[in-house]
Amino acid sequence: MEGEALSSLCTPALVVDVDKVKRNAQRMIERCQKLGVQLRPHMKTHKTLECADIMTGGSRRCVVVSTLAEACFYADHAFDDILYAYSLPFDKVERCAALSERLDLFQILLDHPQALEQLKKRPLRDGRQWHVWLKVDCGNGRAGVLHSEPEALRLAQAITQTEGVELTGVYAHCGNTYNCRGVEQIQAVAQETTSLTLQFMEKLKAVGITCKSSIGSTPSCSHPVTDMAQLSEVHPGNYAFYDAQQSMIGSCSLDDVAVRVLTRVIGHSPHRNQLLIDCGWTGLSLDGAGKLPTGYAVIEGHPNLKLLSMTQEHGRVEPISGQLDYSKYPLGTLLTLIPYHSCATAMMHPVYYVHSEGRLVGKWTPTRGW
Asked: What distance in Å separates the CA atoms of residue 200 and residue 269, rounded to the nearest whole number?
């Protein structure tokens, strides 16, 4: 396989441009160095060892994950200083305890007093402490205790007062940057999240609590604001791959996107003015719901084509305007899709085919499950 052209692959296939991944990762490392903050890259987009090595500069330290499957996968391969950035699931406390007792540093996240009670019921062995990040909501509207509510401060105090538990930091996700269009809007959300996080840190300081602070999202960290230098860490993840959504937001250009899905034309439907391709939602995902002008993906090199809809194993492609010239798309024609959301698309594939300048150089196998 190595050295062969991408056209040698059976489709649908997820292909990764390793040179773009390295470039995207290096740019983020340099941004964080310039800011003077610790980069804690998120593994949830790719879930592979090879990409994790690139993102951590080979250190295999200081990463964030979204599932315990990822945490165990990386722990089994000599990674350490792992943050499980998901509000503590009560059914997984024992597995979190095992990792906390095994690694030099395994960290968890909580946003509710009942989660703290779970930790009290399961003290760690050998005098170890639970390392806890408090998840705060600074406008994203998903997980986290609202930064402005008194219970946020009370929970932070309760964590610090609990034997065997350490408040390691305050964690905020500015996922609301995904609603932005352009750098100005991205930086406005990044500024708001940073300011609210730093204000909360001042509240903690006023009651004698000092700990780390971290915010993150790929848009905010692709265009950081100056005040982010006052944070301890940032935790973006999608930037290694990027995608069409990120280019639409303004995080990157389409040329920065490191992933594609290869697909082939398998049918002509002149009565519908459509092509049929062998990539359905199992090869791309339905994320984005056709929000792009070109439908569910960007069809590279064919700006007048639109991926209109997908079933499990089929995709319907039609022209944005005019009639299809079927002589340009004989059966077997290879088309290249730039996915709307690379995190979702990557999850659909058991293996990623890695290339450099269009020649295959290997395969990456991601971990799966929860």
From this structure: 59
Residues near 41 by Cβ (< 8 Å), separated by ≥ 6?
Answer: 25, 28, 52, 55, 56, 62, 63, 64, 235, 236, 237, 240
Report the distance separating Cα 193 and Cα 140, nearest Å.
9
Reading the block at residue 248, the tokens are 């639409």
CA distance 259 to 227: 32
Tell me which residue has tokens 């009651």.
207
**What is the rounded CA–CA span in Å between residue 219 and residue 237?**
10
Q: Read off the tokens for 322.
A: 């005019």
End-to-end CA distance of the chain: 31
The two tokens of residue 229 are 């230098």
**Residue type at 197 in one-letter notation:** T
Digit-coded pLDDT (tens) for 20-55: 999 999 999 999 999 999 999 999 999 999 999 999
Q: Read off the pLDDT of residues 133-171 as tens digits, 9 standing for 90 and up.
A: 999 998 888 888 988 899 999 999 999 999 999 999 999
Nearest one of 272, 285, 256, 276 to 333, comparing CA atoms? 276
- CA–CA separation, 82 and 302 (whole Å): 42
Using alpha carbons, select from 134, 121, 67 the residue that is nearest to residue 99. 67
Instruction: Write the burial class of residue 61 (CB in 10 Å: 0-12 exposed, 13-18 middle, 19+ buried).
Output: middle
How many other C-beta atoms lie within 10 A of the C-beta of residue 36?
10
Of residues 194, 84, 65, the one with CA closest to residue 136: 194
Helix-then-strand count for the chain, H and E: 11, 18
